[in-house]
Design brief:
By secondary structure, this protein is mostly beta strands. The protein has one domain: Jelly Rolls (Sandwich). The strands form 2 sheets. Strands 1, 3, 4, 5, 6, 8, 13, 14, 15 and 17 form a 10-stranded mixed sheet that branches. The chain has a 7-stranded antiparallel sheet with strand order 2-7-16-9-10-11-12, with no helix packed on it. A hairpin with a 6-residue loop joins strand 4 and strand 5.
Length: 251
């Protein structure tokens, strides 16, 4: 693990500062938009509107909101947001941390994660994927940290660990992070490590020695969380206070 403390000055940080209702900083974040299930039958359509991603105002923060439209009809349209730093910010090795409060409600799937910036040329999963944290509302006390790469990808193929925090992660903010060094990734919740994977632990190539960009999204439904009722419990909000990066070269 890195000899870094979360009180140290990070190499890069983003605190989502700005007036309430404003969009996230477009110099850092762009939106991936569209519907179509996102590979595993998810229900939401991602938009680029402040209805689905906006600043909280006050002491800073971001609200990623999943909403149902025309709830009087079965199968109503659901919208949410998927924010990325693609072509704006990347990191290669270091500590990557986010202060998040998970949403509560049926069928929700929150994620803070990273993808290799060479995805345009090699595709997924060859680019590699590091899931700093995934949380599904059907398993409310657990944080999931996972790697995906060639030969170990998807819901049944990713290599990772389920960490049970013991209390519902939607009840408060927590810090989710990874220490990413050459040849290994260690996952932490509130500064306590709960799993480490190395190149020897995966059944395929290790594509994690290149720059990765960040993603933050709130999905609804899909093959993992499912829907516990005929309609999801919406609106639901994934809250982010900040994201910080300590480069490996800083330590």
């Amino acid at each position: 693990m890195l000899n870094a403390d979360l009180s140290d000055s990070p190499s890069w940080s983003h605190h989502f500062e700005g007036p309430a209702g404003a969009p996230p900083d477009p110099s850092v974040w762009t939106h991936e938009v569209g519907a179509g299930g996102w590979g595993c039958a998810q229900h939401q359509e991602y938009t680029a509107t402040t209805d689905n991603a906006c600043l909280s105002g006050g002491d800073g923060g971001l609200r990623v909101t999943a909403r149902a439209h025309d709830t009087s009809q079965p199968g109503s349209r659901v919208t949410s947001a998927r924010l990325v730093t693609r072509h704006r910010f990347t990191v290669r090795h270091g500590r990557i941390a986010a202060r998040l409060r998970m949403p509560t409600g049926a069928g929700l799937w929150s994620a803070f994660w990273m993808l290799g910036e060479n995805i345009d040329t090699v595709g997924w999963p060859a680019c590699g994927e590091i899931d700093v944290v995934e949380h599904v509302s059907s398993d409310p006390t657990a944080a999931h940290g996972t790697l995906h790469g060639p030969g170990y990808s998807g819901l049944s193929g990713g290599i990772g660990h389920r960490h049970d925090h013991g209390t519902d992660l939607a009840e408060d903010f927590h810090t989710y992070s990874v220490d990413w060094t050459p040849g290994s990734v260690t996952w932490m919740l509130d500064g306590t490590a709960y799993n480490t994977l190395s190149a020897a632990d995966v059944p395929g190539p290790w594509p994690f020695e290149q720059p990765f960009y960040l993603l933050l999204n709130l999905a609804v439904g899909g093959a993992w969380p499912g829907l516990e009722t005929d309609a999801p419990t919406l609106p639901a909000v994934l809250q982010a206070r900040w994201i910080r990066v300590w480069n490996l070269s800083d330590h």
